[in-house]
């Protein structure tokens, strides 16, 4: 879109000219080109431009809802370039159908903690909440704009209230078919994305950056959490945050993750699983390939709770859940400055391994491959570079390593291997010596 056009639109929006009264031929010239994955769905035949007060104190939620309502079922909604849409109330967008959301400007969520604690959507799982929930079918989000979570206020509040329920920045709930691409996510209060109870969803070409500007850590800012979802693709993205780059939570199945640059993260993690005794958690058919992992606590990780209750922290307690991790492959990971390069723990939440071994996990791990993983770890667990600890000889099977060469900055390559068949570990330099799983 030309600068001149975007200024014309900005002016129209600021005097609150409803896009319905503007010629469709003109409006359609304001659209961003459809993203690669959006092109697979039918073209949209109506354009709606969301109005904005362009003012950090005035809520634009109702403008956004009315533009989306106008263009649902076959339209293209524009969030105009150069404008900030302030969102100060929750948006229930779970009934979308065949719509493109073209984010050219900035969507900014207010940081009124008092308000959001009472009004954010409750996602129930792990006390997560969200500013909005996007679902339905055939929904494509793109446009080179930004979604800003004003997370600093939330990160600053967390140390004083560890039970504070913080919102996920971008929540996809009950979506069948759609994509999110090209946009930037900034300063997420909690996880950047959750995709839950969804299928056939693609994330591509995204850029996340959430780092604190003071001593309060950007806590729990996972890149993606996948929960009760099937057939998900995550690719071609850059993530700088302070927690998992991608996390496969209970019932993540058929997921491909490829071509990511993860910086400052906690690795690409299956789990934690088995946290709740009454639940059965499956994570199956996961392929993670071509990942660059820098300044991270972990590279490739699987974390499962043993069969005994423990309290890892005030807000994270559990153990005893059942289920299965099956067919997980990490193929191609370059590591720089990570604490552990590869990790399996079936003792999550229980820091005493001997105590853990008395309560073997009810959640088996089978057919896991670590292939073509190389690079350098830092001093944190030196001389150990990896941690593979199952809770009994019977709860892990088919754990393979091929072409794995991870070394500390001093060149050592020891890997803790307990309760698993070292024959299939492709010459990893196994030791019984354990420095424990990484609490980070
Ligand atoms: C616009 O698209 C919708 C959904 O794809 C379709 O139902 C409708 O008939 C189309 N309208 C026109 C005027 O083409
Ligand atoms: C969102 O709206 C749908 C109806 O479109 C409703 O069924 C659902 O309960 C609402 N979700 C929340 C969290 O309010
Ligand atoms: C924050 O939200 C609370 C509760 O809704 C409200 O009373 C208060 O005025 C809001 N504060 C600001 C600065 O908007
Ligand atoms: C959720 O919050 C409640 C109350 O603050 C707390 O008891 C519980 O442990 C939390 N659950 C998780 C999974 O963090
Ligand atoms: C994703 O990245 C790969 C490798 O760089 C590239 O071949 C592919 O075209 C990209 N996909 C999209 C949709 O841009
Ligand atoms: C691997 O990912 C990088 C981005 O981190 C990309 O540039 C490269 O093309 C990818 N390689 C393949 C073989 O897709
Ligand atoms: C990596 O993260 C650090 C902050 O932890 C940041 O300063 C740096 O710019 C990031 N690097 C890239 C390439 O994004
Ligand atoms: C996972 O899927 C299984 C089988 O469909 C189901 O029994 C179980 O309750 C699900 N678990 C969760 C946490 O949703
Ligand atoms: C293992 O997972 C991969 C990736 O999702 C899939 O292509 C393959 O068919 C799965 N294999 C089995 C035996 O389920
Ligand atoms: C992250 O890693 C890059 C490359 O190894 C390095 O240049 C940079 O200083 C690191 N940043 C931090 C914050 O450690
Ligand atoms: C886990 O493995 C044990 C021992 O091999 C077996 O008895 C049990 O049935 C397995 N459980 C699942 C859920 O596969
Ligand atoms: C295994 O680690 C020990 C202790 O660091 C070292 O002496 C030995 O050379 C290593 N073996 C291999 C095969 O790398």
Tell me the β content: over 45%
CATH topology of the largest domain: Pectate Lyase C-like
Helix percent reads 10-25%
Main sheet: which strands, in order across? 11-13-16-18-20-21-19-17-14
User: pLDDT below 50 for ≥5 consecutive residues: which ranges?
Assistant: none
How much is the average pLDDT? 95
Which ligands accompany this protein? 2-acetamido-2-deoxy-beta-D-glucopyranose
How many beta-strand runs?
29
Indicate the overall shape.
Answer: elongated
By CATH, the superfamily of the largest domain comes out as: Single-stranded right-handed beta-helix, Pectin lyase-like
Task: Supply the CATH class of the largest domain.
Answer: Mainly Beta
Helix count, DSSP H or I runs of 4 or more residues: 6
Query: Main β-sheet, in a few words?
Result: 9 strands, parallel, barrel
Structural domain count: 2
Radius of gyration: 23 Å
* Gap between N and C termini: 44 Å
CATH architecture descriptor text of the largest domain: 3 Solenoid
Structure description:
The chain starts with a helix and ends in a 9-residue tail after the last strand. The strands form three sheets. A nine-stranded parallel β-barrel has the order 11-13-16-18-20-21-19-17-14. It has a three-stranded mixed beta sheet with strand order 6-7-10, with no helix packed on it. Strands 22-23 form a two-stranded antiparallel sheet. β24, α6 and β25 form a beta-alpha-beta unit. With 440 residues, the protein is mainly β. It contains six helices and 29 strands. The mean pLDDT is 95. It folds into two domains: 225 residues, Pectate Lyase C-like; 197 residues, Single-stranded right-handed beta-helix, Pectin lyase-like (Pectate Lyase C-like). Helices cover 11% and strands 48% of the residues. The site of one 2-acetamido-2-deoxy-beta-D-glucopyranose has 6 residues, from β23. One 2-acetamido-2-deoxy-beta-D-glucopyranose (NAG) binds next to loops. GO terms for molecular function: galacturan 1,4-alpha-galacturonidase activity; polygalacturonase activity. Keywords: Cell wall biogenesis/degradation, Disulfide bond, Glycoprotein, Glycosidase, Hydrolase, Repeat, Secreted, Signal. Belongs to the glycosyl hydrolase 28 family. It catalyses: [(1->4)-alpha-D-galacturonosyl](n) + H2O = alpha-D-galacturonate + [(1->4)-alpha-D-galacturonosyl](n-1). It is found in: Secreted.
């Amino acid at each position: 879109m030309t600068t001149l056009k975007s200024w014309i639109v900005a002016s129209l929006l600021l005097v609150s000219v409803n896009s319905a009264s503007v010629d469709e031929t003109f409006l359609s010239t304001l659209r961003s080109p459809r993203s690669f994955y959006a092109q697979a769905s039918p073209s949209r035949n109506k354009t709606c431009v969301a109005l904005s007060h362009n003012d950090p104190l005035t809520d634009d939620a109702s403008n956004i809802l009315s533009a989306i309502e106008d263009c649902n079922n076959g339209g293209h909604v524009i969030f105009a370039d150069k404008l900030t849409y302030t969102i100060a109330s929750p948006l229930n967008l779970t009934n979308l159908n065949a719509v493109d959301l073209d984010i050219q400007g900035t969507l900014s969520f207010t940081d009124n903690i008092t308000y959001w604690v009472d009004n954010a959507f409750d996602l129930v799982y792990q006390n997560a909440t969200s500013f909005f929930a996007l679902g339905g079918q055939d929904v494509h989000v793109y446009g080179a704009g930004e979604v800003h979570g004003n997370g600093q206020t939330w990160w600053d509040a967390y140390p004083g209230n560890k039970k504070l329920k913080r919102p996920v920045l971008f929540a996809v709930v009950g979506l069948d078919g759609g994509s999110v691409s090209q946009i930037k996510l900034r300063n997420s209060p909690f996880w950047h994305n959750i995709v839950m109870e969804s299928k056939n969803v693609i994330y591509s070409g995204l850029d996340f950056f959430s780092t604190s500007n003071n001593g309060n850590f950007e806590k729990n800012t996972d890149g993606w959490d996948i929960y009760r979802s099937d057939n998900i693709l995550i690719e071609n993205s850059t993530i700088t945050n302070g927690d998992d780059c991608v996390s496969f939570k209970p019932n993540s199945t058929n997921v491909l993750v490829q071509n990511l640059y993860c910086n400052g993260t906690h690795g690409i993690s299956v789990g934690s699983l088995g946290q709740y005794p009454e639940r059965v958690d499956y994570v199956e058919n996961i392929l993670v390939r071509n990942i660059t992992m820098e300044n991270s606590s972990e590279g490739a990780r699987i974390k499962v709770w043993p069969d005994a209750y423990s309290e890892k922290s005030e807000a994270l307690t559990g153990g005893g859940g059942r289920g299965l991790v099956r067919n997980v492959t990490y193929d191609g990971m370059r590591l720089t400055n990570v604490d552990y390069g590869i990790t399996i723990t079936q003792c999550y939440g229980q820091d005493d391994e001997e105590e853990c071994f008395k309560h073997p996990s009810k959640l088996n791990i089978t057919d896991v491959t670590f292939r073509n993983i190389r690079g350098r770890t830092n001093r944190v667990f030196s001389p150990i570079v990896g941690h593979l600890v199952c809770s009994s000889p019977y709860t892990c099977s088919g754990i393979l390593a091929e072409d794995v060469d991870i070394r500390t900055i001093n060149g050592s390559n020891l890997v803790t291997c307990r309760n698993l068949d070292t024959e299939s570990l492709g010459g990893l330099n196994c030791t019984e010596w354990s420095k424990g799983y990484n609490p980070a």
